[in-house]
Amino acid sequence: MEPAASRKSPTYYVHENGFIMPNGFKPEHFYSAQAYVPTESDIFIATYPKCGTTWTQYILYLLKNRGSPLEPGQNINQFIPHIEEVGKEVIEALAEPRTIKTHLPYNFAPISSKAKYICVARNPKDCCVSYYHHTKGFTKYYKFEDGTFDDYFELFLEGKVDYGDYFDHLLSWFEHRDDPNVLFLLYEEMKADTVGSVRRIGEFLGGDFLRNVQDSAVLEQIVTNITFEKMKATPSMWSSERPKKFEAFIRKGKVGDWRTHFSEEQSNRLDEQFNAKLLGTKAEKLWERFDC
Predict the structure, then answer these.
(1) Looking at the annotation, which residues are catalytic?
(2) For 201-212, how does the pLDDT look when each residue is reduced to its tens digit (9 = 90+)?
(3) Shortest CA distance to 160 belongs to which of 151, 172, 147, 173?
(4) DSSP string across 22-88
(5) Residue 266 half-sphere exposure, CB side, CA atoms within 13 Å?
(6) Most distant CA pair in the chain: distance in Å?
(7) Closest Cα to residue 236, out of 57, 73, 54, 70?
(8) Pseudo-torsion of CA 252, 189, 126, 25, nearest 10°?
(9) pLDDT higher than threshold 90 for residue 147
(10) What phi, psi does 227 have (nearest 5°)?
(11) Average model confidence (pLDDT) across the chain
(12) Is the pLDDT of residue 1 over 70?
């Protein structure tokens, strides 16, 4: 293991309470997001970063719009904004029903028993790899273009990355998986059974979302438009900036890609952390049936 003093580290914004956020987010929006009062028609997509957030955003957009894709030049965040990035005033200006993205752990997120929350979790090894590439890709904010995976792995394991410790975040939402207004999904099960997962989301949300998944033609169009090949073929949908920024959002989407980055020692160390944090919580069984 490389000494901490010699490691490269991304630049972050650290709030007074120690919570780590990306440099590009205005600090006041972090507190503004927590002050937001959800309405009963609000739908939140709640994830730790790089756990299928953008994919889930697009699924909800297509569900709401009967499978019709975004038009060239449109950005998914226009329709499903990131609350701690833009602040609650932007959210409040949206017409209801609103769909809102957040990476905040449960204890920081705007919570209401009236709103609905779709939480997507991804196995920590693939999350770590995807987060590393995301951090290297956004050079303007993180200044980590010369950082290595080994550098990033140590920070991820210590929880010293934006949005904090992966395992703490996971448990904060997992503990509420049986709440009637929470749908807890795994990224891996969404990949393995995309049609079934889209149906589950529609059934959970009800109303027009349910009617749309019950229409076989609409469901087929949704599933066609959310393939990674289809999404990556139209990067202007996600960002008007250079393709590298798009790549930071949607890279491979593969299950098990961590094997191309982790050493045996790193894999064992993350397994040890996994067991230390999750053993006895039932969350340790989440990925038992998946080859990840």
Answers:
(1) 103
(2) 999 999 999 999
(3) 151
(4) -TTS-HHHHHHHHH----TT-EEEEE-TTSSHHHHHHHHHHHHTTTPPPPTT--HHHHS-BHHHH-H
(5) 23
(6) 57
(7) 73
(8) 80
(9) yes
(10) -70, 150
(11) 92
(12) no
